[in-house]
Each structure stands twice: as structure tokens, then as C-alpha cells.
């Protein structure tokens, strides 16, 4: 009686591919989301590159570098839509099989008997589903220097979704602009926190973190640039956090020192800022004799706490950008 239905159910045991359409934003980018529960970073990949450059076996999260195969990157809205489409597809196939069964049954009923049992298969009318709208375009659009995959993020990205390339220059630029943005948000941070002590502490942490992150960003970028020289000795860990040692190492590899890229006054200012960063990281900002000896900074006595101003962090950003630009010159 249910031959068609049974046959259809048998057929459905195999893997099925259901064509679904997904929306892209106005710029042609497709919404994606990192499947790692710790991350869930939302980003976009240009639809053409998702099809042609991203491999099925391995996709990288633009933010955390988590890898998973290409079926794992749907946003919750897309997943819901795909599930509904699959159910729709299933309903349509089973409904069709049941209608055929009913027709066969009815055809076999004797026409002239006193009692006639007929069967009708009612199927739910099929819904037409509209794919979820893509999120608005993201301002920060990146083209991978290694594989040319186009992707877009909010805030910062460190990995190409297609090849996992971690571009040191992109990472450096994103970190610098991230620090500038957080400095720019200081007035709203102060306004948003009603408790004056917490507001000032938070603002101070943002400024001091800005200095620490700026130095770390420079260190990582300088390391990456240094490693481009063939056959250099591997640098001591964190050596580029130290301007003098970093400059010596760079000189040994390239024949140029940092002072070739900065004026003497700029190099002096940067040296002080790097040493102040050192104090924040190692002495909770308390000035020690090492600091005085290395910088010759007469504005502090040993035992005082350094004061980091927003303007100083901005100056540090400008100087490390200038220095980094110099280091990238052939
Ligand atoms: Zn992630
Ligand atoms: Zn790439």
C-alpha cells in the first residue's frame, strides 16, 4: 500500500544535496561566523572567493585562526534557513510519494462494489522561504596578500579565511588603528561611567594598555620584517621591545640603524616611551635606577610612578609607524 513512500524513504537515506540560495550584501560579501564557541567572530568573505578560493576541507577564522571545514561557518540565521529548506524539500518528496500511493490504491479499488475505500494524501502547502538578509557591509575590507581572497571584518582580523595567512603588516596596521580608536573613545568612556574613580581608572588603563600594545605590535612587526633577511641569527625573544638592542640587530642584518629612519629627537622620545612601557610591564610603573640610567629622563626620581598621557601614546604610535615604514624600505 505504501510502496512509493517506502521507496522514497529508502532514497532519502543517502546524502542529498539541496540547492539553497544565500544572500550577499551590497558589496557581494557573504556572512560567516566562527564555529568556535569561545570566538563566534562574525566576518564576511566575498561570495566569489568563498566559491573559488576557500577550500572545502579547511577554512580559517579571520580573528582567532580556528579551522573547520567549509560547512561549519553559517550564521544562526543561515542555519535556521537551511534547516527549514531541508524540511521543505523532505515534505515535498514524501508528499509526492504518498500521493502516488493513494492514486495506486484508489485505482485498485473495485469500481462497482458496495463499499469503496479511497485514500487521499493531503500535503502541507509548500512554503516559499526567503534567505535571511545579509548584514550590512563591513568597512574594513582586506585582500589577502598571499592568495587574494577578499574578506571583511569589524575591528581587526589576523588571518585570511582561505589560506590562513597571517599578514604581519595588516596585523600591525590593525593594532595601531585599534589603539587610536580606543583613545578616541576616552571621552565616551569617561561619560558612561558615573563613578568618578572607576571612570578615571578605566581611562588610565586604556591609555597605559595603548602604550603596551603599541610596543608589542612594533616588536612583532619588526620581528617579522627581520625574519625576511636570509640567514639571520634568530633574534632573542622580545629583543625588538628594546630599541637599542633591536637597532643593533637590525644594523647587523641590513646595515642601517633606527636613527637612519628617525631624527635624533624622535629616537630619544621613543626610547623614553619604550622604557616607560617596560616600567608598566615589570614594576607597575614605579621608576627605578635602571630607567633613569637608560633614558637620562630627569623629570622623575627613583620611586615615582610614571604618568602616561594620551598625547604620549599618540606620539608613540606616530613614531613607531614612521620607524616601521623605514624598516620596510628596501
Ligand atoms: Zn574564531
Ligand atoms: Zn589568503
Can you summarize this structure?
The chain has helices at 3-12, 47-52, 76-108, 168-184, 186-192, 196-226, 243-254, 264-282, 289-295, 310-328, and strands spanning 29-33, 42-46, 59-60, 67-68, 140-143, 150-153. The chain has 330 residues and is an alpha+beta fold. The protein has two domains: 1-166, no CATH class; 174-328.
Structural notes for this entry:
The protein has helices at residues 3-12, 47-52, 76-108, 168-184, 186-192, 196-226, 243-254, 264-282, 289-295, 310-328, and strands at residues 29-33, 42-46, 59-60, 67-68, 140-143, 150-153. 25% of the residues are buried. It has two domains: 1-166, no CATH class; 174-328. The chain is of the alpha+beta class and 330 residues long. It has ten helices and six strands. Helix 4 runs antiparallel to helix 10, helix 5 packs antiparallel against helix 6 and helix 6 packs parallel to helix 10. The model has no long low-confidence stretch (mean pLDDT 89). The strands form two sheets. A four-stranded antiparallel beta sheet has the order 1-2-6-5. The chain has a two-stranded antiparallel ribbon with strand order 3-4. A hairpin with an 8-residue loop joins strand 1 and strand 2. Residues 144, 146-147, 149, 160, 162-163, 165 line the site of one zinc ion (ZN). One zinc ion is lined by residues 34, 36, 39, 41, 61, 63-64, 66.
